[in-house]
Amino acid sequence: MKLATLDIAIIIVYLIGTILVGFWISKKAKKNLDSYFLGGKTMPWYMLGLSNASGQFDISGTMTMVAWLFLYGVKSAWIPWLWPVWNQIFLMVFLAIWMRKSNVLTGAEWLKTRFGDGMGLKMSHLSVVVFAIIAVVGFTAYAFVGIGKFATTFLPWNLEADFSPFFISSDHMYGLIICGITTLYVIKGGMYSVVFTEVMQFIIMTVACIAVGIIALNMVSAEQIKALVPEGWESLFFSWKLDLQWNNLLPAAQKAVDNGGYQMFTAFMMMAIFRGIFASIAGPVPGYDMQRVLATRTPKEASMMSGIVSLVLYFPRYLMIGGFVLIGLVYFKDLNVANPDGTVDFERVMPEVLMNYIPVGILGLVLAGLIAAFMSTYAANVNAGPAYIVNDLYKKFLKPNATDKQLVNMSYISSVAVVVVGIIIGLNIGSVDEQFQWITGSLFGGYAFANAVKWIWWRFNGYGYFWGMISGLAASLAIPKMLPDADFLVSFPIIFGISVVGSLLGCLLTKPDNDEVLISFYKSVRPWGFWKPIRKKAQEQYPGLKKNTFFARDMLNSLNGIVWQMTLTVLPLFLLLREWNAFFVTLGICLASMVLLKFYWYDKLEKSSMIDEYHN
């Protein structure tokens, strides 16, 4: 099946409209770096929240989640904990407030508020810039692979034949074209273009999600699904092993499950939770998520911005994911998901379902929504990464007296460079899930410890941060090469352990940071944790300074927020499966969690966001 003229017209109108909107508002981005990368810190929190949600609704991740749900059933809702998806909850409850008080442009620049301006800062500053660039390039490659694989299924032109002299596949040619269009409006309009187009894209995506869910409900019955999936597929709960038996139903699925790395599911969950705690307290990696926190107008709005992401993102996204899987299960034998070597690529289930079972007109809308999802994620990363190159390298070390025009022009060049390097890497990687596992299991494994400890332990200094980041980053690049057959259950603890050793040795073998820097940081941010010596010194200078006593409340709110977020994830799945008992129990838990968040988070938000105020 090829796209109908109406569907092609909808997609073309969407692409042209996106570019025009991006160019229309681009003048606002040319004033200075603050305008280009943070929108002048004037945009409403709810627009930044919708933009952030849109940026996390990526097409590569959606294809992977469809494959996970197909293979592992409702239990697949746990797998994104490896990311961890609930870092948004920690941001909502307390971290966004702490971060926004810095009033800086990038995560690297934020380090000055924590480590001062000595050699430790310079070293830690360099390490986070290097990490940020590698992370953004990795995400760019991840997105490039996903959009190319997706587009090849439904766009009507055989680009591989047209460009065969250049040895470029159709997957990669489509990736180049769509990445090029997205890069164009991002470079031109900066943060303003990204946010305004992402809000528009999020609306389109939400409509597309609802459409897919309704179609699946009308096409597939609960009885059909029960006959096609192994026992336990519809349950959220798990035992020590995954224990899903596809052999008699779909042998190719059994082979994918055996090779997927999730069989020891309890061990996987223990590692995901352990990693998730450190990664969440560490805060977002230097990228678009952090950028939106820093772009809010106040610390309170930073917290609210992070909260709206979970509220608007998970239900519609999983409604779409579940819809694709239900249709894919029933009509799997008619889907073209085989690789040339005869293996089955379950990441192609989503585009195949789209092309064969979504009606004309609605197909164009859904495809426009999914392209919007890709463009949102891609645009967010392309806009965030160059901020570190321009603000933290070019301006800081090469041309400190550069004019605003020179800095914005350098931002254009940096954006192109990030895109080119990301695409080159994308040309040389395999599946989307392969890149996902490297980012979450390896790259983030070297990030989590140093960035968590910097908040909660006064003795942790810039040297410890530098050596923790560098050793973890080096390990994340080396271990997958040294142990190519090891899955993330093996590689993550090794990389994390190397980062811990690097952090502690770098910290304990050098002097603590200057007291004045630590007192200033503590007075401004007021984190809980192991700050007693600094708190006493701060209270000597500022007698009315009070200790942050919100640790227990923050942890309980975070735990409740994780439960709330999980209910938003599985509610649409139980709805599509007509698992009514599970649906209504989950709905009740969801509403109860929201009531608790209202009283113990939202109503306390004003006090939390103003904790830097003290009274004599």
Explained architecture:
Helix 9 (170-219) crosses helix 16, helix 13 runs antiparallel to helix 14 (299-330) and helix 19 runs antiparallel to helix 20 (462-482). The chain has helices at 5-24, 33-38, 45-56, 59-72, 87-100, 107-115, 119-154, 159-162, 170-219, 222-228, 251-259, 265-282, 288-295, 299-330, 349-357, 362-398, 404-426, 432-443, 448-456, 462-482, 488-508, 515-525, 532-541, 551-577, 580-600, 605-609. The chain is mainly α. 72% of the residues lie in helices and 0% in strands. The model is unreliable at 161-167 and 612-616 (pLDDT under 50). It contains 26 helices and no strands. It has one domain (5-158, 167-217, 235-609): Sodium/glucose cotransporter.
